[in-house]
Amino acid sequence: MPFIRDTLTVFRRQLRLSLRTPAWVVIALVQPILYLALFGPLLTKLPLGALDGSSGLAPAGSAAAYKFFVPGLLIQLGLFGSTFVGFAIISDWRAGVIERFRVTPVSRLSIMAGRVLRDVVVLVVQAVILVLAGVAFGLRAPVMAVLLSLGFIVLVAVGLASVSYATALIVKSEDAFAPMLNSVVLPLTLLSGIMLPIALGPGWLQGIARVSPFRYIIDAMRDAFAGHYANMVMLEGVLVAAGVAVVCMWLGSRVFVRENA
Predict the structure, then answer these.
(1) DSSP code for 57
(2) Per-residue b/e over 172-210, b at no fewer than 16 CB within 10 Å?
(3) Which residue, among 156, 141, 146, has the nearest Cα to 216 in the 3D structure?
């Protein structure tokens, strides 16, 4: 199919550009690994019940702490790694790369899809490295949980990268795009319970946190790391992740095709 062929063509071009500067893949991992090393040990002193919702009052220990913390860091990696990709397309638009694609027979939608596919591959590689780093710090999780988490990362990356490219193509300015991202990403991060359990907060904060889709995704990932797969938490997480991906892809594709018409 022409769409698949064009998507793979754009993907290979974008992947080659990433491989020319592999340092960026490592740099993107610095922040979550620092959190893993410097913030993770603090969670080992929290009561076990604060992390898994039980009534346990004993310190959580390394295994339980990192089962709670690593899923949050994976979503943080996906959240930041996907939303900030729009800066690259602003640079390409300014350099005339997007204009040159317009005069080729390449599908307009493939220009976005190929980039998103590259972002998914990069994020999956980074996620695997982060999980291995977590294992070094004491994480113990079923293989199925890790695979499910990678699936969640793929859905998050597909959705957020699509809408990031579309938004960047609309604003066409780093000065406008950066504060726009910060005003959205920061509240989502804080309300998702990435660092600390939302259950530790007051009732009003827990109520507000329910509007963040990433809270449901993180809760599902944490249940998977605890060995729980067939429950309502997992179903909610899968439905929310798939719904966010579909809606963001639809919005991104509409904007992208219109802007490149």
Answers:
(1) -
(2) eeeeebeebbeeebeebbbbbbbbbbbeeeeeeebeebe
(3) 156
C-alpha dihedral (67, 73, 75, 78), degrees to nearest 10:
-140
Question: Which of 61, 201, 217, 69 lies closest to 154, judged by CA?
Answer: 217
Place of tokens 């793979």: 8
> Residues 167, 86: contact at Cβ < 8 Å?
yes
Collapsing DSSP states into helix, strand and coil, what is residue 85? coil
- Give 178-227 as a DSSP string: HHHHHHHHHHHHHHTTSSS-GGGS-HHHHHHHTT-HHHHHHHHHHHHHTT
Q: Give the per-residue pLDDT at 59.
A: 52
- 169 touches 193 (CB < 8 A): no
Spell out the long-range contacts of 40-46 with Cβ–Cβ below 8 A and sequence spacing 24 or more.
40/65, 40/66, 40/69, 40/137, 41/65, 43/68, 43/69
What single DSSP character describes residue 58? S
Contact 148, 74 (CB under 8 A): no
Place of tokens 């892809």: 249
Report the SS3 class of residue 142: coil
pLDDT digit string, tens, across residues 241-252? 999 999 999 988
Give the integer Cα–Cα distance in Å for 245 and 159. 4
User: Looking at residue 109, what is its pLDDT?
Assistant: 82
pLDDT in tens, 180-227: 888 888 888 888 888 777 777 788 888 888 888 888 999 899 889 888
Average pLDDT, the chain: 83
Which residues sit opposite 59 in a β-bridge?
Answer: 47
